[in-house]
Amino acid sequence: MTDPRLYCQTALSPAAEIKLGRDESHYLVSVMRRKVGDKVRLFNAQDGEWEAELGAADRKGAILIVQTKLRAAQGVPDLDLLFAPVRKNRTDFIVEKATELGVRRIRPVLTRRTIADKVRIDRMSALAREASEQTERFDLPELFEARKLMAVLDGWPDDRLLIFCDEAGDALPMRDALKARVTDKAAILIGPEGGFTPEERELIRSLPSAIPVSLGPRILRADTAVAAALSLWQSQCGDWSGGAQPRE
To answer: Is pTM beyond 0.85 here?
Structure first.
């Protein structure tokens, strides 16, 4: 059985003792049924991944003793995801898959046709953490409160490519559009189920760093569009193609 893997905010070094909270202790002892002496992997973006041993354990608290460094930390691409929140379970899917697919920042944006105007940062954080632990990622994505699209785009930096998934216009297929503008500093913008309004589309297209793209001949649900767009960007520009830089 693979050793459990846990994200740890505390600095990791040989012989350091890490006291786990109630939820993590319950997970190790009651769910994973780990006992004193069993191995656990700990990781974070600064210290990499370390092997630790369970030194004391019950359902209320557990202590891990850090032993050996296993791997140095490796960063993810400098990629933001901007998406209009959808219904609860589908927003959960978006956060989970964005984390798995290597997004560095997750930014919910509120458009005229957004159907869900609230997102819970605590829930997003828990989902992102679990996805990072399961997918061998070293960091957690940075999470932002939902903001109005117009406010997010006001003063958008010219040096960050804004990939606008526009299914209502004459956009090139995303793969073709990226060939001429390969970049390792980008953001992907996914709209609501009802699409962007004409005014929103006009504003987005007016930005110097924005490029409209198509995700194919079929209209995709928002959560499907996120997974498709991130996969296409990763294969063309990201660490799937060997182009990502380590986190500084």
So the answer is: yes
